[in-house]
Specification:
- The protein has twelve helices and 13 strands.
- With 416 residues, the protein is of the alpha+beta class.
- The strands form three sheets. Strands 1, 2, 5, 6, 7, 9 and 10 form a seven-stranded mixed beta sheet that branches.
Length: 416
Amino acid sequence: MWIGLIGMLWAVLAVAHPMPESRVWIDTTPSGLRLTLQLPLNRLEYGFGQPLADLPGTVLARHSEALSRYLLRHVAVRSYGRSWQASPPQLTVVGTNASAELEAVMDLRAPDGAGRRAPALVYDAITHEVRTHRVQVFLRSDWAGGFANKPPLLLGELSHGHDRLPVPLEPARTGASVLRLLQEGSLHIAEGTDHLLFLLMLLVVAPLAASGHRWSRVRPVRQALRHTALVVTAFTVGHTITLVLGSLGLVSVPTRPVEVAVAATIAVAAWHAWRPLFARAEAWMALGFGCIHGMAFSASLSGAGLTPWQHAQALLAFNLGIEAMQLAAVVVVMPALLVLVRTQPARSATLRRGVSAIVGALALAWLIERLGLASLGALSSIADGWPVLALIPGLLWLAALVGGSGRRLRVTASED
């Protein structure tokens, strides 16, 4: 009976206090694999045979070489019956308390003809001694197979008596990750209604020039196109700067303040479209606000597990995808705006104010929700979907076509 009670108590304690697990993060490299191991010191000391958890700060000074030899004995990769060559791991202790971990980075090189795309992880660090220990294994990046900038994929779990796990990799394809990141960048801006609405507010007033606090004259076509190119380029430069800095981890801002700031930029841009606030500084406005939008973009691009060269390619591809979608938006909207401001100036002004009011209302709804002041689910669902993005350009083109047709009819009637 006592044995049963003790067993039940042990089970309850195990549920209440889950055992720390090890984790293995797998990244492919041109020559093989890079493994990043995270091993809790309070479990590693049982497998290693020496006390480690009491003084985490002295672990490497006391046991660095012995720990390297231990990991080389208990961690391996094989394919087609052949072992891969492992380099000595780079060791770091993370944390200073009872939950401190040893982080080890190991590069493994596949021998010629050993099947670089069909590896199997052979691993029994800690588990060869601690029967209750579990090791979670994740694929973090596979550049050649197109698995980049994705959430890590859980491949499986290793434990005592289960020390082998195949690592399924897609066939290597030239440019697979670059193409995927191009698509991701374009989809990110296409699905980012807030970013496109900000760009729309820049474009709506691009054919116009201000005097005082009014949009008072229409720019000549060439001047309007040059001004559009300047403003869009400034926005691009701004968001590229912070996209790079944020993705590299050089600038880090919590997501919520960034999203609040993005909503605020749209509200300001909508007010500017109604009545000029930055009449002589639109490019500077686009540059500064672009920096804010770039921080939002950077949250969608992670360089985890990538080499510096792969990360550079990822940044370039993702940003080119964003620029391609922005250019598509300019091509769709600008011809209608250029026609409308020339053929129907009064209707153009009314439509501009109406669009800026709609966008301003949506921006304020985002701002209220992102500040946590209220939940405006219905309005947010409208703002977060394609209908708004399709409706506004559709109205612009409809007005432009109606205006152009009316003008042609008046010219024909006067000739008759």
